[in-house]
Please model this.
Amino acid sequence: MNIEDGILEHITNEVYIFDINTFKFIYINKSAQINLGYSKKEIKKFTADKLNLKVSKENFTKSVGLPLINNEVNSILLSTTLQRKDKTCYEVELSLLKTVYEGRVAYVAIALDLTEQINMKKTLASQAETLRKLTHYVPGTLYQFKLYPDGRSSFPYASENIYDLYEVNAESLMQNAIEGFVRHHPDDEKKIYDTIQKSAQTMDEWSCEYRVNLPNKGLRWLEGHSTPEKLADDSVLWHGYLMDITERKATEKLLLKQQTVLQQQAYYDSLTGLANRRLLLDRLGKAIQKGTRHTSKLALLFIDLDNFKEINDSLGHDAGDKVLIEITSILTAIIRSEDTIARLGGDEFTILLENITNTESVATVCNKILQKLAHPIKIDGSELYISCSIGISLFPDDGIKVHDLLKYADSAMYKAKREGKNNFQFYDTKLTELATERVIMETGLRLAIKNKELEVYYQPQVDGRTDKLIGIEALVRWNHPTMGLVPPAKFIPIAEATPLIIDLDRFVMEQAMTQVAHWYEKGLNPGGLALNLSVKQIQQKDYISSIQLLMKKIKFKPYWLELEVTEGQIMTNPKKAIKTLQKIRNLGIDLAIDDFGTGYSSLSYLKKLPINKLKIDREFIKNLPESKEDAAITQGIIILTKILNLDVIAEGVETEEQKNFLIEGGCNAIQGYLYSKPVTAVELEVILQNGCRMQSNSRQRVY
Model:
């Protein structure tokens, strides 16, 4: 054979070569292998008549083969059916030739798949049948609609599948008036009528989407497109097609919903549903433009929850999320509908107040927020007391740019934190400098802990009746290499707002406990050691074990130690606090509530706390005995300690009059500048060696 196998491998027709005597396949090309589903190896195992369903080997030889063998004809065309490996069949036209292949006389069969031609012949049986078949496969319905000058209308033609769209037979539609079959949705009737009338007047193509109510399928959406033709009798004939677009409409609706979800994710907080930072900045920008045009003012409130991290750490993030949702509900109920409330992240919220007339109205909103948050909220059975710090910037007073107003409100919020939290502050130009100083201070404090620039001071606690030292409070001081002694009021709030407070507390605890153990070992008696304790510290998993190891290491007796925790920290989550403090109390360590009376007092929880002592805050002491209000509060606290069988100590005592008032009221333990300011370990050791006798100095009052 002169034709190379390589050529046969690349033609699209199927090519078979089989032995003239045995009928076994000698060669099949790739097209044949693909169409039949057999590999070359498989097909060589059986004879050609196994694939042919109509002609046997014997009949083939007699009727077809002999004329070729005898050279009576050069080729023969034969229509037959071949069977694939998967048992499916297809019609082919075989062109047969005789050839010599590899020394053997053989037949060459070139097959043409007749499947498409056969289908086409069936489709084109007649013009009417052709149109019917074609429209059956069109994804829609072809039609002609005619509108006569007198207003009558008809369908000269409609393809059979119009039934799928209107549940009306095409024959009935063409033979009867259209009015009997109209099933348009009543809300779309006018739109359809107006569309047809406009097209008749302008002779323009029209497109329209509308709904139909079908007896069996219910409400469906259709889309129509049509081209008008003006006829000699002044009627208009539209040639068009209709499609069912119900699924497309459903998809569009789904995509619109997804787009709404994506927009929600892009511009709204996923937890609270409030505007996020992006949307806030956008609305703030538009509010500034509006305020500029109308010379109106606006206020931006930056709200940060106080001690929110303690809630997350103690109750878990799920409870924290519920708190944020509850806070959202509270804030939303306070502001006007035209105002914007946003969550920037964590426990930070902002409120944009537009069209404000004066700062008093802004202060009123802030007071409402603080008052609402003064009430406890219940989360998972726990009563939580949440306060917040609010910073306020004003347009155009403080700035006219979006990011400036946000930055200034943030700075004002930090001022509120420094002012004791649970308050609001307006921005002023000095706050930016303070914010910068805060960043520098935090960085410096981190290095101070690492470089051991911190030193523990001790303030004596004295029995006012005998002037004898009965205990000491450990207080940290920062000896900065360039700034000198940094006041605690400058760096303690920064430490409390960051994880640095944990390292700071541990440093003070280890230094002070080691020093006290050393004094007792020398035969000196400093009394009990009072240490301030932050909630962050006791929330550490290893806190109990670490304090046990430290006491064992330095031979420190548990009853030498008294830990002070503030009332506000306890009342953030009283139930959790009771469990944690009880574990500490079980070690034999005394517990005291520091700054009592300044937080959210709750006598129902106070009597359940495993505490030994209350510490009266200096705020109630400094105006004694002149202030009747402070005197009444102080006397009330002392009486409360008697009822609850607790010890009591007053801090910030600076005058003999204050001391005498306290002793007469039943508070004998005194701490303050009347006896001594905080001193170094060296200075305190001199006092201990002199018999722990303290000398009062009423002139040493510090304001």
